[in-house]
Sequence to fold (422 residues):
Amino acid sequence: MKNFNGYKCSICGTEYLPGQVTYTCPKDGGNLDVVLDYSGIQKKFQPEDITSRRETSLWRYLPLLPVDEPAGSSTPLHAAGWTPVFALPRLAEKLNLKHLWLKDESRNPTASFKDRASAVVVTRAREIKAEVVVTASTGNAGAALAGMSAAVGQKAVIFAPKSAPQAKVAQLLIFGAKVLLVDGTYDDAFDLTVKCADEFGWYCRNTGYNPFTLEGKKTAAFEIWEWWMEAHREWHKKDSPLDNHSPLTIFVSVGDGNIISGIHKGFKDLLALGWIPNMPRIIGVQSEGSAAIANAFNANTEVITPVSATTIADSISVDLPRDGVRAVRAATQTNGTYITVPDSEIIKAIAEIGKMGIFPEPAGATAYAGLVKAVASGIVKSDDPILVMNTGSGLKDIRAAMQAVTEAPIIEPTLDAVKKIL
Ligand SMILES: Cc1ncc(COP(=O)(O)O)c(C=O)c1O
Fold:
């Protein structure tokens, strides 16, 4: 089934065969893009061959992935992806937008977008018979790797900064991974992980470093593509004013830059196959306190200068983003942009989305905070169709969530006490 031709360096363009390299480009350290056999896929598949599949997980897109179908079919590894898209009419009205949706990645098996990457990396690890898979993580990538590994009995080692939220650390431990909390930043954990992989022969999943993470993440783009086609069909039925609308604009929060690059790669695959006529617009949102990629975008360069990151959104707190070049391109090549938001706006956004029945973690709410700023500054117009990605569950970081609300009062168990409060 594999339509996997090899890799291409995103910086120097050097191409490698599938067995020739494992992580980044040996020449310049550039992130490697997986190269698919597009003409082979075109000969074998039409879009309907994918969209008519009964599979409701990211494995629906197997013909566009560089791995084979993983063994077994009823584990959490098979439940990653196929997340719902919710319409948000009340928030749309508040922002004076006509069309606003949210794709809720907190519905993944370990409650974040990262399950997409880990499902594909663990499948790859089984294929190459890796004994141990290791990753550095701010929490979610580790939880995803630990969960997907546990699902199929793969050994996993996770390095996270000791400041990682407790719920994320609990996930790692409950999934039975070997967990090492590093007295340092995510970036320190990243560097240590690479050294350990080298020293002990472990397979390294690190975000951006391992080319297969992007391949998992791109499946979100395929789902957006299918959902968008379906939405169009509905609108055509209703003779909607959206018939002549501008392209979909997607808001996504950015740390290392691998999620935004993955979404971009998915649409690039679809464009290369001739299955979409043009790209959606992709807008990256970073916290003001962790904005290395936004800084590069605004300076009109692909050179990423590290920052000293501090933000409440721990999942996107990164000094030196590991997928910065491709993340800048995700915006430059789609007529998108980068927006930065202060932590205070991220906290407000948690509560705004919460009132719609969706509980985002700070990094998830960051994308919506970016939309609010984009509306205020005219980056999006009232009739632009907008999709916001919520990348993770608020249950993973209760301390941050509690900053977005007023604590509940404690009362005597009497009717009088209730009357006084109401
Ligand atoms: C919930 C959440 N949102 C956003 C991101 C940012 O993804 P990336 O680091 O690939 O930019 C992460 C990464 O850990 C995450 O866990």
